[in-house]
Q: What sequence folds into this?
């Protein structure tokens, strides 16, 4: 624990702390370009120079470790002159194009030039220019602005696991480039824009849209996957212009996936802004809220509760799920379903549907078994943790199911449930490795449960977890990975088939409908249901915010709001309750989801017992104590999932996600996501076809 | 020689190391720990260049990345950093003309001119017959015998416009090539013979002559 003095202040730090980190602990501002908290230290920008008494030269504080009794000055004349010099050098080849640069206003170079630089340039020669690189549809490059800090290269190597960016040539000709002009393919490429301290890498979809000081910043939660990344939504007027990551060490650190970041233009397109009702000719026509509610309540009043079902889709918040559950309870419907993708895991045992290890806990595992899942697509931030664990500790990864395209090596154990059986029976070569692991974990994906024998596979995976010591006193290695933001919330609130009253799951609901035994189906934001299999007699009420498949098949459409337009609660896949905040106002006549249900209950003559969000949240706490613990992960006591029918079929596990960029209504409405699909996905398919 | 330049060049479709080179690679890899194979990237790039008409094609860099289990961008970084790796085709003889101060003071400008005139190409170009490529380089560290040039692996020193042209002719035909000083000077001995310690020099000369004969 060296003790040293920085700017006449004493500080004791952990051994190995750099001078820069020590100065930061004292609250001293240290200018820097290449140093980044989460990346390895490069020490190439020389902006963080400090004067160490007794040392012949100034030290780059990001690389210099603290020593006992060091006397360090960060603001001495010598340091200031040197930093001025560094700034002047830095600006030699940097264009003076701040007025047309998107980084303007949030540019490290601009800020530090004002604070530490020289107010004029003495450089008389021509500035060099560098050809721009094609980094795909999300990252715009202006390489002439690059100051060669290599943050992007290090981010690619250390976080995203794409070793495609590099430093080419040398000296005056040095530039950042890709291998012979190839496009980078990563689901985390948007973060390159964040790490770039200058305007060399900027966001392509956001190009020339706004200046940072014009934007209203709202700290909220992402719903594109079940990770619940912490985000900041930047809006101007009623338009969401961009989404940026927000620091949360245990969830997304300070990164977000490209879908989280760039799907926001879908919030403007294809929105439902008025209630619609199907007329006698079978066409949806805009109507007033009053007419829509009248039509629904007229239908409901003559229908028996057992012939009503409700399905919750992937983007719904806990408040609206609670309200829908209460409405269904009033109507006496046992058919509640939140597994809108048709997966069949057991939804009644919390430890069975939770991501028990927690996202941060993935870093402690020494063996990871992926079963029927590709975390890179299904939960990009979780995959970044697995990559980090592999990079730092060379964690062993094994896959059961289809081969997957991930950025770490893995062992392929088998394709389906019989591999799990073989392993439990000790008939597999991998048995020994599993037995020797201290902290093994498995991730059971939707690919393994989205099949007829899903429940049996779920039980088998629990058996497997117990057999291989994944359940210990202080370690729970059993994880179910969800793909949708609403799933955990719905499960926690018990939006599941009421088996004791003969409740159907999704298959049952669809079957009942096709047989004419279902009169009303209330669809809240579920657009991937097999609508064409529903019977003609089923009256479909669709409540949602985008005119996608659900609205197209509905008899009544109730316009609600998207995730940036409401104060709401979400639970992520590890059971973390998080509060999202409203950034913009609803579109047209759309209303917040829970208020729609509240109004509907009034039309039915049995108003729900809550009139505002606080009362509703109290109701949620009644339903599940989890809602008392905002932003905490509560360890679930282990209960094994048991299936009555344990026969599994030999069909290999299929991956549930076909296209990373087209998974929900917001992405599908987004032009940027379409471009990504065209650029990355279609190209890949073509390549695969050529390769046979 | 950045990525931009490479794109325009017609690249071969495949590259395979020769049997002899594969044996060499085995020996090179033995020098490094098996988890740090990437250390061998520079000698391997050199092997490619020697096997493949003095330049390194894209496919060869991919092959190296595969053998050394490293990302190909890392191979590319090294290859673009060092000017001695040629990433585009060059002539059979890559003539590196030193024009740094000592050589320039001794008349390297004449040597450059002689080469350009005789071969009918400018610095940076390759002759039509594919025999010669001229490049200008910084000090190669043989200033004592300036002006000098490097052709492939060898140094040619004590050049004048005349003997430069002679040398080019010899290179063209491939016979009678004298490596080193073109004026017959031994090592870096003073041009007009030794002026001090003559007795020692005499002794030394005799000795050297003996060594020459022994060879």
A:
């Amino acid at each position: 624990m060296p003790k040293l003095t920085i700017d006449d202040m004493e500080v004791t730090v952990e051994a190995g702390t750099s001078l820069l980190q020590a100065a930061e602990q004292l609250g001293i501002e240290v200018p820097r370009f290449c140093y980044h908290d989460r990346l390895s230290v490069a020490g190439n920008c020389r902006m963080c120079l400090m004067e160490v008494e007794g040392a012949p030269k100034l030290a780059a504080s990001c690389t210099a470790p603290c020593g006992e009794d060091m006397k360090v000055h960060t603001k001495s004349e010598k340091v200031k002159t040197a930093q001025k010099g560094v700034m002047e050098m830095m600006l030699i080849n940097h264009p003076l194009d701040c007025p047309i640069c998107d980084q303007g206003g949030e540019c490290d170079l601009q800020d530090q030039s004002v604070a530490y630089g020289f107010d004029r340039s003495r450089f008389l020669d021509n500035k060099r220019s560098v050809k721009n690189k094609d980094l795909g549809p999300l990252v715009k490059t202006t390489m002439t602005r690059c100051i060669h800090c290599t943050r992007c290269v290090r981010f690619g190597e250390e976080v995203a696991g794409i070793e495609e960016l590099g430093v080419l040539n040398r000296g005056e000709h040095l530039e950042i480039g890709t291998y012979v002009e190839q496009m980078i393919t990563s689901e985390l490429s948007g973060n390159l824009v964040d790490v770039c301290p200058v305007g060399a890498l900027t966001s392509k979809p956001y190009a020339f849209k706004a200046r940072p000081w014009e934007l209203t910043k709202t700290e909220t939660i992402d719903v594109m996957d079940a990770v619940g990344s912490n985000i900041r939504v930047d809006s101007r007027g009623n338009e969401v212009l961009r989404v940026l990551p927000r620091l949360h060490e245990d969830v997304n650190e300070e990164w977000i996936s490209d879908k989280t970041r760039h799907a926001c233009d879908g919030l403007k397109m294809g929105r439902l802004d008025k209630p619609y009702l199907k007329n006698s000719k079978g066409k949806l026509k805009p109507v007033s809220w009053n007419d829509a509610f009248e039509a629904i309540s007229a239908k409901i009043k003559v229908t028996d509760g057992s012939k009503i079902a409700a399905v919750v889709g992937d983007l719904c918040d806990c408040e609206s799920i609670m309200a829908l559950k209460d409405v269904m309870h009033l109507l006496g419907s046992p058919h509640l379903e939140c597994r809108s993708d048709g997966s069949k895991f057991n939804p009644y045992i919390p430890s069975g549907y939770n991501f028990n290890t927690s996202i941060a806990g993935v870093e402690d595992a020494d063996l990871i078994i992926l079963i029927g899942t590709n975390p890179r697509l299904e939960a990009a931030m979780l995959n970044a943790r697995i990559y980090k664990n592999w990079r730092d500790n060379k964690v062993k990864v094994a896959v059961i199911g289809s081969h997957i395209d991930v950025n770490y090596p893995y062992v392929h154990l088998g394709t389906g449930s019989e591999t799990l059986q073989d392993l439990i029976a000790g008939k597999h070569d991998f048995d020994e490795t599993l037995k020797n692991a201290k902290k093994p974990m498995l991730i059971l994906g939707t690919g393994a449960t989205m099949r007829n024998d899903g429940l049996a596979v779920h039980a088998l995976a629990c058996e497997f977890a117990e057999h291989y010591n994944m359940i210990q006193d202080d370690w729970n290695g059993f994880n179910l990975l969800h793909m949708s933001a609403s799933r955990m919330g719905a499960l926690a609130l018990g939006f599941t088939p009421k088996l004791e009253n003969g409740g159907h799951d999704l298959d049952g609901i669809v079957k009942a409908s096709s047989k004419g035994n279902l009169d009303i189906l209330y669809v809240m934001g579920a657009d991937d249901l097999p609508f064409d299999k529903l019977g003609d007699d089923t009256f479909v009420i669709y409540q949602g915010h985008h005119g996608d498949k659900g609205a197209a098949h509905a008899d009544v459409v109730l316009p609600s709001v998207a995730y940036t337009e409401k104060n709401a609660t979400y639970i992520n896949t590890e059971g973390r309750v998080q509060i999202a905040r409203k950034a913009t106002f609803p579109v047209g006549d759309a209303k917040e989801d829970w208020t729609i249900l509240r109004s509907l209950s009034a039309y039915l003559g049995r108003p729900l017992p809550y009139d505002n969000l606080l009362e509703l949240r109290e109701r949620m706490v009644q339903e599940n104590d989890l809602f008392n613990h905002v932003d905490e992960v509560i360890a679930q006591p282990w209960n094994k999932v048991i299936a009555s029918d344990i026969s599994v079929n030999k069909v290999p596990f299929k991956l549930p996600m076909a296209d990373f960029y087209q998974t929900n209504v917001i992405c599908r409405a987004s032009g940027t996501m379409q471009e990504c699909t065209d650029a990355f996905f279609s190209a890949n398919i073509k390549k695969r076809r050529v390769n046979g | 020689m950045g990525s931009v330049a490479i794109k325009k060049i017609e690249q071969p479709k495949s590259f395979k190391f020769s049997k002899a080179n594969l044996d060499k690679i085995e020996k090179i890899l033995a020098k490094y720990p098996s988890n740090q194979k990437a250390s061998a990237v520079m000698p391997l790039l050199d092997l490619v260049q020697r096997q493949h008409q003095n330049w390194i094609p894209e496919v060869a860099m991919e092959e190296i990345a595969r053998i050394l289990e490293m990302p190909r961008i890392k191979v590319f970084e090294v290859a673009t950093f060092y000017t001695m790796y040629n990433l585009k085709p060059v002539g059979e003889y890559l003539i590196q003309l030193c024009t740094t101060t000592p050589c320039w003071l001794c008349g390297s400008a004449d040597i450059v001119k002689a080469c350009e005139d005789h071969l009918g190409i400018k610095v940076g170009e390759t002759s039509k017959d594919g025999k010669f490529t001229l490049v200008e380089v910084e000090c190669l560290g043989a200033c004592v015998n300036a002006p000098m040039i490097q052709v492939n692996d060898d140094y040619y020193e004590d050049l004048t416009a005349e003997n430069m042209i002679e040398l080019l002719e010899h290179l063209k035909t491939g016979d009678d090539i004298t490596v080193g000083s073109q004026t017959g000077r031994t090592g870096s001995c003073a041009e007009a013979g030794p002026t001090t310690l003559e007795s020692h020099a005499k002794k030394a000369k005799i000795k050297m002559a003996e060594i020459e004969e022994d060879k």
Summary: The CA atoms of residues 70 and 101 of chain B lie 40 Å apart. Chain B touches chain A through 15 residues (CB under 8 Å). Chain B has two domains: 19-81, 93-181.
